[in-house]
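Forgive a beginner's question, but might I ask you for the amino acids of a protein and the tokens describing how it folds?
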Amino acid sequence: MSTDEPRVRRTARILVLDEGGSVLLMKTHWGRRTRPARWLTPGGGIDAGEDERIAAVRELFEETGLQLTDAAALGEPVAFRRIELPPAEEYQVREATYFLLRTPRFELSDADWTDSEKDDIVGVRWFEPDELGAPGEDFDPEGIRSVLAEALRA
């Protein structure tokens, strides 16, 4: 039995959908920039002492400027993924818990981005559902289309 347990990063992610069903995605670099930037949902690491929902509310505000006054507005998680990360990354595995938030389309604010986010985030946009398969676009390895489909069934 190996004593080398993989380094796991627990994350809370939010599928933010507007009134027309478009999903908000952010294009970011991999941590160590081992691969081209890819699109993923807002969200990030769960800090010590946080549960998934509280982390999701914090990350949503930090990354988009959208502040939820009631964490219960996120409801229960709608999907979960355990993703093996590419070699050379700080973590070997990411565990992602997804929440679904329907909201009117809003203009994203980057006022609370960390220095790391200012460096890593290279694009933000709303994707229509049929655009998620657009050629030439890299999406996060957990497959945003399948996560979204699972969330909408929940």
Observations:
- The mean pLDDT is 86.
- The beta strands are 8-17, 23-28, 38-40, 43-45, 79-84, 93-102, 121-127.
- Helices lie at 52-64, 115-120, 144-153.
